[in-house]
Amino acid sequence: MQKLISEIKKCTFCEPHLDLGAKPIVSFTENSKILLISQAPGRIAHEKNLAWNDASGKVLRKWLNISFDAFYNPDNFAILPLGFCYPGKGKTGDKPPRKECAPLWQHKVMQNFKNVKLKILIGGYSQNYYLSKFKKQNLTNKVQNYQQFLPEFFVLPHPSPRNRFWMQKNPWFEKNVIPELQERVGSIIKTENSNI
């Protein structure tokens, strides 16, 4: 697995299209229990070389009811975005993940996991990639009907502060979906390590 991570870290396949150059950001071991599959690292992740160490990450850890240390233990959580590098700034938010990255790496990484109990699909890009036959369902519909994807996948909106209006419009998410998420994560990750 270390050889694979080393290979990923050296990848420059998309570099000509990346505003800040290639800097793949992933974290996993063959023992990772939960996969966090999102779109791509943001600018802050690129600068700090650490995914989810921002406002979105704080919200995500709260949703998971997991501590900072437990979150960044790769035996607990694999961080595996569709695009491994920051794609750059778009008109509204970041650009989409580069389309070349997921077909190049996702399957290659996936086949090495031995202990995965749950794959959490964060946001529309990862859901469209892994749940392609449900592309016609919008994100709200998928999240509201999250149980149809269990036990393999748990679907979530992106925890970005930009989505606060979605949260306000959909109070059922924090009332019904988050407790189920926390229960599943808590049963996989030692609960004594869990707190906000």
Structure description:
By secondary structure, the protein is α/β, with parallel strands linked by helices. It is 38% helix and 8% strand. The relative contact order is 0.18.
- Roughly how much helix do the residues carry, as a percent range? 25-40%
Average pLDDT taken over every residue = 94
Using only C-alpha atoms, the radius of gyration works out to 16 Å
- The SSE string, one letter per element, is HEHHHEHEHHEHH
Beta content comes to: 5-15%
Give the low-pLDDT segments.
191-196
* Biggest sheet: strand arrangement: 2-1-3-4
Please state the overall shape, judged from the principal axes of the Cα atoms.
globular
Structural class, please? alpha/beta
| Number of distinct helices | 9
Sheet of most strands: 4 strands, parallel
Number of strands: 4
Measured distance between first and last alpha carbons? 30 Å
Question: What would the keywords be for this entry?
Answer:
38% helix; globular; single chain; 196 residues; four-stranded parallel β-sheet; alpha/beta; disordered C terminus
Please write out the topology.
Layout: H1 2-9, E1 34-37, H2 43-48, H3 55-64, H4 68-71, E2 77-79, H5 101-110, E3 118-122, H6 124-130, H7 139-144, E4 153-156, H8 164-169, H9 172-188
Parallel strand pairs: 1-2, 1-3, 3-4
